[in-house]
Write a structure and sequence with these properties.
Strand content: 5-15%
CATH class: Alpha Beta
Largest sheet: 5 strands, parallel
Shape: globular
CATH architecture: 3-Layer(aba) Sandwich
CATH superfamily: P-loop containing nucleotide triphosphate hydrolases
Helix content: 55-70%
Number of helices: 9
Strand order of the largest sheet: 2-3-1-4-5
Oligomer: single chain
Number of domains: 1
Order of helices and strands: EHEHHHEHEHHHEH
Structural class: alpha/beta
Bound molecules: BIS(adenosine)-5'-tetraphosphate
């Protein structure tokens, strides 16, 4: 048996940061749809050219593209016993249709999700973090107007999926404000409550 977790939260809540740490703790791979898109943009692949058009504006990449990418990625990780499939999904699902698609993908692979961890942080804090990252990394989608748009896309399309997991009794919220180590410790505690 391996851990199969979805990490939710607004842009800048710390999903990418914490996914890498949790993946190491649990001995599974962190799969970030945002990272896959950025690697393709850098490599100037067809997928990258398409994704860039959406990510640079802070829009979601179309579901048809994102869902197929995640399906292929998860299927490629199964080599023997499906119960050994483990992952932390960072940035997927991002709307209710993607939740349904993830259910279908996992059912087809013969496994189920342990649950979702949601990292919470208010808009002022996440905006400040992303603007700070902009100074360091210069990401095309970390400008103030695009950050504002990403937050509104999050509120409209992504925030509603927390209720879906909550209704299933498969959601634990974790406060994302504080030092990175503190947030990691809260997430590790939250993992235990998901297992109960
Ligand atoms: P993502 O790559 O998922 O970007 P993000 O939501 O902004 O979060 P990220 O992981 O980068 O930031 P984090 O919170 O870790 O998506 C980018 C774009 O790809 C989307 O806008 C969309 O276009 C597309 N996309 C991705 N998935 C998709 C999907 N499923 N469907 C359709 N489109 C999709 O960290 C932010 C910053 O905060 C970092 O600099 C970090 O160092 C800092 N930080 C973290 N924790 C901190 C803490 N505790 N204190 C202080 N700073 C902290």
């Amino acid at each position: 048996m391996s851990a199969r977790i979805v990490l939710l939260g607004p842009p800048g809540a710390g999903k990418g940061t914490q996914a890498a740490r949790l993946a190491e703790t649990l001995g599974v791979e962190a799969i970030s749809t945002g990272d896959i898109f950025r690697a393709n943009i850098k490599g100037e692949t067809e997928l990258g050219k398409l994704a860039q058009d959406y990510t640079s504006r802070g829009e979601l990449v179309p579901d048809s593209v994102t869902n197929a990418m995640v399906r292929d990625k998860l299927a490629s990780k199964i080599s023997g016993d499906p119960s050994e499939l483990g992952f932390i999904l960072d940035g997927y699902p991002r709307n209710v249709a993607q939740v349904e698609e993830l259910d279908a993908i996992l059912a087809d692979l013969g496994v189920s999700l342990d649950g979702a961890l949601e990292i919470t942080a208010d808009n002022d804090v996440v905006t400040e973090r992303l603007l700070k990252r902009a100074e360091i990394e210069g990401r095309a989608d970390d400008t103030e107007p695009v950050i504002r748009h990403r937050l509104s896309v999050y509120a409209e399309q992504t925030a509603p999926i927390s209720a879906v997991y909550s209704e299933r009794g498969a959601l634990v919220e974790v406060d994302g404000i504080g030092e990175v180590d503190e947030v990691t410790a809260r997430l590790v505690d939250a993992l235990e409550s998901l297992e109960k």
